[in-house]
Amino acid sequence: MTVLTLRNTDARYPAQLRERLGDDAPPKLAALGKVDLLDLPKIALFCSARCPGNVILSTHGQTARWRDEGRCVIGGFHSPIEKDCFRILLRGRQPVILCLARGLEGMRLPADWKKPLTDGRFLALSPFPASERRVTKDLAVERNRLVAALADEVVFAHVTPGGQLDGLRQLVAGWNIRHRTLSAEAAAYAR
């Protein structure tokens, strides 16, 4: 498959990026897969690298429900729990959007992407040039902002207080995007 370039002047470039990120919106996106998936309602999933066991189980269950309901889920799928959820989603039939914290061009295509790509239910995006070959903390922060800006709803499975996702949660609240935190819901339920 061919990597497409969506410039911020193109009609297919997501308007919500310009609206939410303003001058910080990436000037272009590299895209591999079905670009039309950007037009669907999207749920973003984030989870801190470390989280309680009950959150892991509830996040896996929620992800399986989204898969079975045919919901489009977007994420960086980088933390261990997010990676688990990505594997759950790839086994379904629903759309999945993966945003990379590195360049997309020249990347070797993972085997588990091939069937979803062929089925037209997968899109990989990157706002970074091909020269960015390794994920860094700064690239991950920028990628997470992109994921949240593209989403219609944001679900934080778990947020470590004062961590990277804590700042993102505050940014999302300022954008008035519907958002929730699964670990907070689980804690309230346990009381």
Characterize the structure shown.
It is a single chain. By secondary structure, this protein is of the alpha/beta class. It has one domain (4-190): Rossmann fold, CATH 3.40.50.450. The chain is 40% helix and 19% strand. The chain is built from seven helices and eight strands. The protein has helices at 15-21, 53-69, 80-90, 111-118, 137-150, 164-174, 182-190, and strands at residues 4-7, 28-33, 42-46, 72-75, 96-99, 122-126, 153-156, 178-181. It has an eight-stranded mixed beta sheet, with helices on both faces. Strand 4, helix 3 (80-90) and strand 5 (96-99) form a beta-alpha-beta unit. Helix 1 packs across helix 5 and helix 2 runs parallel beside helix 3. The longest helix is centred in the N-terminal third of the chain and has 17 residues, at 53-69. The model is unreliable at 186-191 (pLDDT under 50).
**Count of individual beta strands:** 8
CATH architecture: 3-Layer(aba) Sandwich
Overall mean pLDDT score?
Answer: 92
How do the helices and strands follow one another from N- to C-terminus? EHEEHEHEHEHEHEH
Low-confidence segments: 186-191
Q: Indicate the radius of gyration in whole angstroms.
A: 16 Å
Number of domains: 1
The CATH C-level name is Alpha Beta
Return the structural class: alpha/beta
User: Distance between termini?
Assistant: 50 Å
Major β-sheet, in short? Answer: 8 strands, mixed
The fraction of residues assigned to DSSP E strands is 15-25%
Query: What percent of the residues sit in helical stretches (DSSP H or I)?
Result: 40-55%
Fold-level CATH name: Rossmann fold
Order of strands in the sheet with most strands: 1-2-6-5-4-3-7-8
What is the tally of helical segments? Answer: 7
**Overall 3D geometry?**
globular
